[in-house]
Amino acid sequence: MKIETTQSLTSAQKDSITRLWNAEYPKQLGFDGVSGFDEFLNGLSGHRHFLIFDENKNIRAWLVSFTRDDERWFSIIVDSTEQKKGYGTRILDEVKRNESEINGWIVEHDDYLNGKGEKYFSPIEFYRKNGFSVLPEIQLEKADFYAIKIKWKNKFATENFQSKYAAFLRGVNVGGKNMIKMEVLREMFSSLGFSDVKSYINSGNIIFETNEKDDLALSAKLEQAITETFSLNIKVMTRKISEIETLVKNNPFAGQFENDKDLHVFFLDEDLSETNRELLLSKNCENEMYAVQNREIFCLLRIGVLDSLMGKGFIDKKLKVSATARNWRTVNKILEL
Q1: Is 170 left (phi over 0), alpha (psi -120 to 50) or beta?
Q2: Fewer CB under 10 Å: which end of the chain, C or N?
């Protein structure tokens, strides 16, 4: 089973996760339908969903990571029919790749019943096996519910743990417009406190390190700095290098092209809606094929860019999303820097 990540859930996914939550978690934590689950999600910031599907596209495991009180937290559910198969560990390992630490709440006893009326067994040993520390002195207490805190911390991390990012600027140095010198752009990044700043070619590709964790907040910070420095309104798409590594590993068109300039990746500032995803994929043909993964669109062209939907601005104009594209050569070069 494959792990997929997204910043937003479809209506069907919300319904499926709500039913899974209400079935597997202690009944004291149950939601009053999808609206209750939606209210929970709307209260999260910096969140990202991790999903495991079976061959019929049914959700078998779900995890959401998010920021609360300047700490990274998570909630996770694994379908009871799929437990002890390694799915919980797999999905936690995927989250750990991009975090220096994560926190959660767990029940340390077997006294509660889940939404199915069955005994809810404490997952405390599962988390210990996965490298979490149990902190019984930090407690969550409600009238009819009690939990304790758990924490995982990267053993190589420090308080100033640095993550490596790539920032992709949209539409710079094209046709004499939005002209920005890469040397000055690198200096701007360094002035913001980012380290090991590098650039690749003249199209606005910057690699840097920072201990900041929210890529959307990073993009907003960079956009404001570019406006102040260059008097230009430029969209910026920011990704962790680990995300780009995963993107390259999961290339949906692997083996279907010889020239790296035939494959393009659009980096979006948000996930495509269900409607837009279906609209885009309906345009697939022999000469122009699309695939969507998370916040990226892959486009494999067997015709010239100017003759394609991509070259005619279909993604911006019809899907109405902010995006910037890089060819496969550039994407791979980013990982070498």
Answers
A1: beta
A2: C
CA 5 to chain centroid, in Å, comes to 5
Q: How far apart are CA 167 and CA 133, in angstroms?
A: 34
Ordered strands of the 323-327 beta sheet: 288-293, 296-301, 263-268, 323-327
Per residue in 167-220, pLDDT (tens digit) is: 999 999 998 999 999 999 999 999 999 999 999 999 999 999 998 888 889 999
Report how far residue 65's alpha carbon sits from residue 72's, in angstroms, rounded to the nearest whole number.
7
- Structure letter (DSSP) for residue 26: B
Q: Identify the CA nearest to 59 among candidates 81, 74, 42.
A: 81
pTM of the model: 0.65
The amino acid sitting at 213 is K
Q: Mapping DSSP to helix (H, G, I), strand (E, B) and coil, where does residue 82 land?
A: helix
Lowest mean pLDDT among 14-23, 96-105, 219-228: 96-105
Q: What is the mean pLDDT of the chain?
A: 92
- Encoded tokens for 88: 């919980």
